[in-house]
Amino acid sequence: xxxxxxxxxxxxxxxxxxxxxxxxxxxxxxxxxxxxxxxxxxxxxxxxxxxxxxxxxxxxxxxxxxxxxxxxxxxxxxxxxxxxxxxxxxxxxxxxxxxxxxxxxxxxxxxxxxxxxxx
Length: 119
Prior knowledge:
mainly alpha
């Protein structure tokens, strides 16, 4: 006869499960590593470490919130920021063009020096 035939566990099965569960728990609690772990969790070191980690996490979360919080700006400040951002983009583009030109000039200089040395 199986569990499906009887429609469930019987009273005897419930007692066996409870007894085996109690035995498993008692065995776990008698394990030296578990005892050390429980002592640590109940001790002051754990409480101090937990509080330190909690404070550090709180500070990190506040920093992240502050970093991504929208800035309070006046319309004039926002317009000035847009103006400066556009000017910065123009300067960056011009600098990139100048770097390319410099690269070309350096290549030409190298070719000319090589040609002079061959003479």
